[in-house]
Design brief:
The complex is a heterodimer of chains A (302) and B (383). Chain A has helices spanning 20-31, 162-172, 295-298, and strands at 35-39, 45-46, 63-66, 69-78, 91-98, 105-109, 122-127, 138-143, 176-180, 204-208, 211-220, 233-240, 247-251, 264-269, 282-287. Chain A has 302 residues and is mainly β. In chain A, the strands form four sheets. In chain A, strands 6-5-4-7-8 form a five-stranded antiparallel sheet, with no helix packed on it. A five-stranded antiparallel sheet of chain A has the order 13-12-11-14-15, with no helix packed on it. A three-stranded antiparallel sheet of chain A has the order 2-1-3, with helices on one face. The longest helix of chain A has 12 residues, at 20-31. In chain B, the strands form two sheets. In chain B, strands 3-2-4-7-1-8-11-10-9 form a nine-stranded mixed sheet. In chain B, α3 (88-101) packs across α13. The mean pLDDT of chain B is 95. The chains are: A mainly beta (302), B alpha/beta (383). Chains A and B meet through β11, β12 and β13 of A and α5 and β5 of B.
Chain lengths: 302, 383
């Protein structure tokens, strides 16, 4: 059997509508971003206004100006909008009750994703740019929050100082230096202008090995803003051989459950051509394979 | 000191993860009005205001004291801002106390706050500053290695932190102002995800919006109420984050601060002479560490006190009756909430979390890398 005949057909006509005094006032108001509800004989506020309430009684001519905020009373998500829908991306049809109104209006809510929709959520009117005195003058509703963005940005020039610069320059050459105050002073890494415990000015730099002891550590398993690495990763305190205080760095090259306090570790450097004036020349510290250091030997650094 | 100082009004907000209903100004005002109401005063009675909050990066509001002056009725009056990292709620209270003790002012309102929902403290703690190695671990990552050191040094029972979490959360159930109201079993805490070994999720504090306020007055004004909390001692101590030989587990600044405040209060045996303590414990393992640092026991005995239940409400050394920082942490206000809880206990106004017959209590705060300490001892009897 052959295909049945078919042809497209469009039924279209430029009807006009007389909204009447009540609906007319409502729609005229929308054109000027004014939201008005009308009072019923028994004192309720209808928004959108109607000429007769559900009991069949004519409404009064008392009008109430409403603010463009309301609450979602019910909603249904539209994942694939149709051509005539108010939004071309997924949205919700919702019953929105404006503050001060006793009834709700059916309209679209632009929430981006269904997971942002909730009965009881607060929404506000988004007005259409071009207004024509129809309900489409309200483009849609959008989620409303009392929290507003307040970004902030400051710009600085950072000078690391003479001793810290010397430390970074040494790292650029693949070396660690510390500093001390007097021949029997404690060795600080990075070197400081003075020993903070007694105020004695630093007198000399000393070369330090890139090996040391891991005194204590944690395994970071939580993501947070500004983080450079994806967890999990190990972060530990390392007292370099010849130093009297720890530096902090990543520990790797070994399964996390085998990382121990007192473990001997050595710096794992990046390829030489990537070195700059930075501790980041070292990717992480890894075990040397030497026997662990007894607790008593590093207890003073905890 | 020339003048005695007493607490006659204490107020705090209902602390929550977020208070979108209130601006910063509304938040501090809610706490301030409650403190004034309890003191039967109005802003007009106040001579000066002392305000504290965490570093400005925690909220992104620079010099909030200028913006908040109107909300605190401070127009035409001295207003000071105190700034000592996480200990700020304690040191703010102490600055206010000193103004009274020095005879400079008779009636001082002190307020501390934080609205953590407006920013991210973890971000504020981990800036990538040129040349400096970034603290790649976050707040818990900084403290977790210290806890590992504590556990290793004293061979502490691994459940100690979990026991503290269960106890503090149960205490928080008695406190309507607390942010977290939840009962957890030891097994539930043990089973919660490990965030920073040895710190589990349930062993960390929440992130809260909240404010706290107190009215501090001199002797002549203390009689406005019949149950003032008298300040018996205050102390602040600081040490550097890093120096050779630093004891990070049991910092010397904390020990010195405790000794100073006990000397002022005439306390020689804190375990026997202090009825309860509200101590800054943002990660549960800090309870045994501070028990030792504060001299409630010898080093190595703190975890045993916790495991033996001695820090419970019915123990010999109740710790964090309000639920503590483990239940509520608006950072800038947290220290003051500790000080305020100590004062509520000796005033007998701690409601459901009252320790019967509390006559002397310790309030404690710390901040930075366990380096800023602030403490006070308050009592029910006029010194």
């Amino acid at each position: 059997m052959s295909e049945p005949l078919r042809a497209p057909y469009v039924l279209e006509y430029t009807f006009r509508r007389t909204p009447g005094p009540i609906m007319g006032r409502f729609l005229d108001g929308l054109r000027y971003e004014t939201l008005e509800g009308v009072k019923t004989a028994d004192g309720r506020v209808l928004f959108p206004p109607r000429e007769y309430d559900e009991t069949g009684t004519a409404v009064t001519n008392e009008w109430v100006t409403l603010r463009p905020f309301g609450t979602v009373r019910s909603w249904s998500w539209v994942e694939q909008p149709r051509t005539d829908h108010p939004l071309s991306k997924p949205f919700a049809w919702a019953l929105v009750q404006l503050d001060g109104a006793d009834t709700s209006i059916v309209h679209a809510v632009d929430a981006g994703d269904a997971k942002h929709m909730k009965t009881g959520m607060r929404v506000r009117v988004r007005w259409a740019h071009h207004k024509s005195g129809t309900v489409k003058d309200i483009e849609c509703f959008e989620p409303h929050s009392l929290v507003m963005p307040a970004p902030s940005r400051l710009e600085f020039e950072v000078y690391p100082g003479r001793h810290y610069t010397a430390y970074l320059k040494a790292l650029e050459e693949g070396r660690f230096i510390g500093g001390k105050s007097g021949a029997d002073g404690k060795v600080y890494v990075p070197p400081r202008a003075a020993d903070p415990t007694n105020g004695q000015p630093a007198t000399e730099y000393v070369d330090l090995a890139d090996t040391g002891v891991l005194t204590t550590f944690t395994v970071v398993r939580i993501p947070f803003p500004g983080q450079k690495l994806d967890p999990p990763y190990c972060f530990g305190a390392i007292v370099l051989d010849g130093a009297d205080m720890p530096i902090y760095h990543l520990i790797s090259g070994v399964p996390y459950d085998q990382i121990r306090m007192g473990m001997r570790v050595k710096a794992k450097w990046k390829p030489r051509e990537q070195w700059g004036p930075s501790l980041e020349n070292i990717l992480y510290f890894e075990p040397t394979g030497e026997p662990d250091v007894p607790f008593e030997d590093y207890a003073e650094h905890l | 000191m020339a003048e005695r100082c007493a607490v006659i009004g204490i107020g705090q907000t209902h602390h929550k993860e977020s208070r979108p209903d209130l601006s910063l100004a509304g938040l501090v005002r809610e706490a301030a009005l409650r403190a004034l109401e309890e003191a039967e005063m109005t802003f007009a009675d106040i001579d000066a205001v002392v305000l504290g909050t965490a570093p400005d990066m925690f909220e992104g509001v620079a010099m909030p004291e200028l913006y908040l002056a109107d909300a605190l009725g401070a127009a035409g009056k001295p207003i000071f801002r105190v700034h000592t990292a996480g200990s700020v709620g304690g040191s703010t209270t102490i600055v206010a106390t000193h103004l009274v003790q020095a005879g400079v002012h008779q009636k001082v309102l002190t307020v501390a706050f934080e609205k953590q929902s407006e920013a991210n403290a973890m971000w504020a703690l981990s800036p990538a500053i040129p040349f400096q190695p970034q603290l790649v671990a976050g707040a818990g990552g900084y403290f977790a290695p210290l806890m590992r050191s504590y556990i290793r040094r004293h061979d502490a029972h691994p459940d100690t932190g979990c026991v503290v979490a269960v106890k503090d959360r149960d205490n928080g159930l008695l406190n309507p102002y607390a942010h977290l109201h939840l009962h957890q079993t030891l097994d539930e805490v043990r089973a919660s995800p490990m965030l920073w070994d040895p710190i589990r999720y349930s062993e960390t504090c929440p992130s809260s919006d909240g404010a706290c306020a107190m009215v501090l007055v001199n002797d002549a004004n203390a009689a406005r109420v019949d149950n003032p909390a008298w300040v018996l001692g205050t102390s602040v101590r600081t040490e550097r984050t890093f120096f050779a030989g630093r004891d990070q587990v049991n910092p010397v600044a904390g020990r010195q601060c405790a000794k100073d405040v006990y000397d002022q209060a005439g306390i020689t045996n804190p375990l026997r002479e202090i009825d309860c303590a509200e101590v800054y414990v943002p990660f549960s393992w800090f309870e045994p560490m501070w028990l030792e640092n504060l001299g409630f026991c010898e080093p190595g005995e703190g975890w045993k006190m916790t495991m033996d239940g001695k820090t419970r409400r019915d123990g010999v050394c109740p710790f964090n009756m309000s639920g503590g920082v483990m239940c509520t942490n608006p950072i800038g206000a947290s220290g003051m909430i500790r000080f305020a809880e100590a004062a509520r206990q000796v005033r007998g106004t701690a409601d459901a979390h009252q320790i019967d017959g509390a006559r002397r209590a310790l309030g404690h705060a710390y901040g930075g890398g366990s380096q800023f300490f602030a403490m006070w001892v308050v009592g029910s009897e006029r010194p």
